[in-house]
Amino acid sequence: MCGIVGYIGNRQACPVLVKGLHRLEYRGYDSAGVALINEKGELNVYKTRGKVQDLENYMESKDVSGTIGIAHTRWATHGEPNNVNAHPHCSNSENLAMIHNGIIENYAVLREMLSRKGYTFKSSTDTEVLVQFIDYIRTTNKLSLPQAVQQALSQVVGAYAIAVIEKNNPNQIVAARKGSPLVIGVGEDEYFLASDATPIVEYTQKVVYVGEEEVVVINRGEELTVRTIANVEKTPEVKTIELSLSELEKGGYPHFMLKEIFEQPRTLANSMKGRVSLDKKHVVLSGFTNNKEKFLGARRIIILACGTSWHAGLIGKYMLEEFARIPVEVEYASEFRYRKPVIYPDDVVVAISQSGETADTLAAVELAKSNGAFIFGICNVVGASIPRNTDSGCYTHVGPEIGVASTKAFTAQVTVLTLLALCIAKEKKTIEEEAYLEIISELAEIPRKMEMILKNNDEIATLSRVFTYAQNFIYLGRGYNYPVALEGALKLKEISYIHAEGYPAAEMKHGPIALITSEMPVVVIATHAGMYEKVISNIQEIKARKGRVISIVTKGDKTVKKMSDFCIEIPETVECLVPLLASVPLQLLAYHIAVQKCCDVDQPRNLAKSVTVE
Ligand code: F6R
Known about the structure:
alpha/beta; eight-stranded antiparallel sheet; seven-stranded antiparallel sheet; 20 helices; binds fructose -6-phosphate
């Protein structure tokens, strides 16, 4: 949800900022802008509706000189995406320019107060209110900019990562955060700031993660100074990040999404590295080993997540209940946080989040934590807010996921959940040794089997042409394949804008079957492992009503193949691991349909990668 970048140093700031915006564009892409202070101390602000490329075009003939600047790529919350609502926003005095990621909840009250004091507003944004409020406090109380930011933020309710610069002061950026991520890159005589490390990594590996409610003063050529909003001095902790530039590029693929789908055999192996023993005889998860008693004493497990991560959680539930015999509830974090849930101190909460920044998941984690539950995080982005708020956990280690539609993070989440279920089950002795060993050796085979599925890419691309103009889709699966159906439908709708619903196959006859006509494509996951015979009956019900069936079957299957209009084969594996394989052709199907429809696959409309607002 919005990406922010800042630079101060010896380079020209604009190219650094624009490149940074491109890297952060996955976070929001409805408008973009830059503010720069040139040698004369003038503050130049350029912003436009559209993508970062539109901003670049707009700035072609403008004065973009200056070695200090801030920039923003937006995902609209307050006010439609247009030139006026784009960031940076300025104070009426045009002395201050500010960028912001987050939501100021009490902005209406502040706006009213400022209006009474004579301030006028050009935009409908909460950000313009905040920058004017900082200006008001600065001028009324005759404070320095850092002091004014501190005082203003102490009266603000909401979430923010902000950066402010001031006309005639080319030597200072003031930044702060609460609830939204902010990273400072520390270079030689230069500093970078950004919503995540991706714009920073090509200049420096040294970063400081700004803490909750901290205000950072970045003075040219000086050490960083950090104070909390309540004015407690902090020592910035410089960390080294491990992120390579190649992970941030498309590497020859037309889209990040396709690259990330194809990366899965490798990323899956990475998620298991050091966790599944080389002799394939046992699984070790340090996050589990160090907190064994919490899991063994758990009354139940509550999984908290949103979207695709929630689907992974559902698969996790099936595994944890089957193998570890612990009751599991899978909750939408957005519902959990507001519905006064019953949380026991002996509950274990598993929070799943690719970004580690999803506002609802973070708030749900905080709620569970304040009720005494033990929190275990499964996240991808190292050092993000959710892993920093958990008691323990493990990273999925798939590298940056840049395509807005989650693919490799999903399969990695399912992998880590499998490992967790196996660890608990082994310790509780609720799994037969034979089943335990079989799952481990099958897990080790999954990357190779995924490679086999990826070889069908061209075939799936051809199949996708048949459905380019479909208006609706239904996805069906049972047992472990039910969450796969939900995930397949979500992938299709988010990137191709085709309406798609996932159902447990047996639920069809309780209502949705009324939708079946010869116009309705129905994707059925009908693998040998996973209630095969029952799913065959469900397919017959669809065929009897002339629905068009695209089936995902186990290699060599003849029965379902004969009944289907189209069929995609996947290699055989144990039932609980079928989702890892079955989701790959569904990702490819959604991808190719979206490409056929000329949709913006990596940056679908209305979406953003990291949902840091509720
Ligand atoms: C769909 C997708 C979203 C995310 C959801 C949670 O492809 O990516 O549904 O899964 O917004 O995000 P994280 O996992 O970052 O908490």
